[in-house]
Amino acid sequence: MYFPPNKIEVFPSKQNRGGDYGYIKYKDDIYNTSGQERAVLIIGTSNDTNDNIILQPSGSVGIKGNPNNSYALDVNGAVDATSYNASSDYRIKENVIPISDTSYNIDNIRPVTYTNTKMEKQDFGVIAHELQEQIPFLVTGEKDGEHHQSVNYNGLIGLLINEVQQLKKRVQELEQSKP
């Protein structure tokens, strides 16, 4: 089936035909000079706000207006889920070393509170480029790069568990050494 470049199908609202509608748009990359396929399929709505889903040739999906998503799923907004599981099976892990046998710790990680300007809400976390100086493999992207940096907060959990275990061990030692 052939669709002309930059074809759009519009589905007007029955209640507000003048301003609200849904659409499916194929945006061809006919002026592409990079040699890489960059055409996208956009499924969206236009009412009080514009929301869309962008399907990239790479198979990645951008939600809420992110045409340059660099992840398999890139969401510009809050994500709510009943449950979230990160792959952690031993079969996908090699060179396993207990954190207690490394120099990794939380001593130089600066936790902060901040206002998230995209979400317009208060939050807790770390600054990606600061964490990258301490534990580079927990940060994706480069400071001031084309895309915002992101943090693997799940990766911090193992480090925090190790720190709590060390503290508990130290507390037990101190309690046993009391006269």
In a nutshell, what does this entry contain?
With 179 residues, this protein is an alpha+beta fold. It has helices spanning 128-134, 153-176; strands at 8-12, 21-27, 40-46, 50-55, 61-63, 73-75, 112-116, 121-125, 139-140, 150-151. It has 2 helices and 10 strands; from the N terminus they run ββββββββαββα.
Protein traits:
alpha+beta; 6-stranded mixed β-sheet; 2 helices; 2 domains; 179 residues; elongated
Q: SSE layout and pairings?
A:
Blueprint: E1 8-12, E2 21-27, E3 40-46, E4 50-55, E5 61-63, E6 73-75, E7 112-116, E8 121-125, H1 128-134, E9 139-140, E10 150-151, H2 153-176
Parallel strand pairs: 5-6
Antiparallel strand pairs: 1-2, 2-3, 3-4, 4-5, 7-8, 9-10
Number of strands: 10
Rounded to the nearest angstrom, the radius of gyration is 23 Å
Oligomer: single chain
Q: Level of helix content? A: 10-25%
Mean pLDDT: 83
What spatial order of strands do you see in the largest sheet?
1-2-3-4-5-6
- Shape verdict: elongated
How many angstroms separate the termini?
84 Å
User: What is the string of helix and strand elements?
Assistant: EEEEEEEEHEEH
Question: What portion of the residues fall into strands of 2 or more residues?
Answer: 25-35%
